[in-house]
Amino acid sequence: GQQLNQSPQSMFIQEGEDVSMNCTSSSIFNTWLWYKQDPGEGPVLLIALYKAGELTSNGRLTAQFGITRKDSFLNISASIPSDVGIYFCAGPTLMDSNYQLIWGAGTKLIIKP
Amino acid sequence: DAGVTQSPTHLIKTRGQHVTLRCSPISGHKSVSWYQQVLGQGPQFIFQYYEKEERGRGNFPDRFSARQFPNYSSELNVNALLLGDSALYLCASSLAARQIYTLNTEAFFGQGTRLTVV
Lengths: 113, 118
Description:
The structure holds 2 protein chains of 2 kinds. By secondary structure, chain A is mainly β.
């Protein structure tokens, strides 16, 4: 079945640094979604991308929909402590006439003390 | 307005037992989806319900079942629990069933129910 591969698995960064993570697939997606999940909480949608090549920002977050439609990137500029958490990419796939979300395994962001 | 609410927040069950998890969607949302999230992984789709009918099912055994009530709340039932069923169970609500994934139809997640099977 379809899979989304996220990298890196985890990142240790200094406060103030920029962060980059990506998500790749062997299949084409028409939409890419980026979520953040804090401990003990459900995922929260950060950015949605609907068009190949699209670059969309949400505050210090910027995400891009890859031209091949098989990848997407998320960048966080000037990281702050509240950026800590797990970032997931997800994409809808059509099954039995309804869309289901396929998720990556997540990138865990940890800020060095 | 209240967001998606799930109950209970935590639950411990023994192997072979059954469990019922509950979800109340955001007011006005008619679609509820259930996901299983095992530690260290992304969520896996289990079911989607819209207008009380099942509209999608993931690759889960028949021990998993769900239903949606006239007020659009939903229950997820798991029978004959196995150790591997230990996970965070997430409920997501959205306006529409087809989830076109425009900003008007994004899915909102509850905080989840942490199920531990011992």
